[in-house]
Amino acid sequence: MKIILSFAIFLTISHFAGAQVRQLEENQPPGKGKVEELSWLNGYWMGTGFGGECEEVWLPAKDGHMIGTFRFWNEGKLVFSEFMNFVQEGESISLKLKHFNPDLTGWEEKEKWTTFELIELGPNTAWFHGITYERKGDELVIYLALTENGKRTIEEFRFFRKGL
Q1: Of residues 50, 67, 75, the one with CA closest to residue 159
Q2: Going by C-beta distance under 8 Å and a sequence separation of 6 or more, which residues neighbour residue 68?
Q3: Which one of 8, 56, 138, 158 is separated from 46 by 20 to 30 angstroms, measured CA to CA?
Q4: Which InterPro entries does this one have (predicted)?
Q5: Tally of domains within the chain
Q6: Which long-range contacts (CB under 8 A, 24 or more apart) does 79-85 make?
Q7: Per-residue pLDDT tens for 30-82?
Q8: 38 CB contacts (<8 Å, ≥6 apart)?
């Protein structure tokens, strides 16, 4: 459970260079794209990650925002949830999110959130600084770069599309 709760450590995302996860170089401008180009994420997804069960739901883009939620539970108990927002910022996109404990107390301070800047958009892949979304048919794979106790890893989430 400690390992799972240490997920907050990803706020200090590593500079782990891997095929699945990319990092913006210092002074590199973010990539260009429109929130609507992420429509392939729309829907209800269920799967695994962090050694437990996960769900993620994405609503269609509206007014430069694409809103989503995530929840993670282990052994039948809710561990944490997230409120996520792909935000159009000029010619680029950022993923902004906040984490919550089961009692809805936030991990981030009230005026702060975790942000991932866009690097590149592909037809069914989106690379952000430290996180990658890749859709393969009815499967969604998310790769997240983490640093815990100085050790760099990539956590893989595997989701499958479900009906609402």
Answers
A1: 50
A2: 41, 56, 57, 58, 59, 83, 84, 85, 86
A3: 8
A4: DUF6265
A5: 1
A6: 79/1, 79/4, 79/5, 79/50, 79/52, 80/4, 80/5, 80/7, 80/107
A7: 999 999 999 999 999 999 999 999 999 999 999 999 999 999 999 999 999 99
A8: 58, 61, 66, 86, 93, 121, 126, 133
Instruction: Check: CB of residue 103 under 8 Å from CB of residue 117.
Output: no
pTM for the structure as a whole: 0.84
Distance from chain centroid for Cα 75:
22
- CATH code for position 98: 2.40.128.20
Q: Which residues pair with 134 in a beta bridge?
A: 125, 141
Range of the domain at 71: 2-162
Instruction: Look up residue 141 and give its two tokens.
Output: 């794979």
H-run or E-run covering 14: none
Cα-based distances in Å from 105 to 18, 41, 99, 102, 124 = 33, 27, 9, 7, 34
Q: Distance between CA atoms of 162 and 164, rounded to whole angstroms?
A: 7
Give the separation between CA 10 and CA 149, rounded to whole angstroms: 11
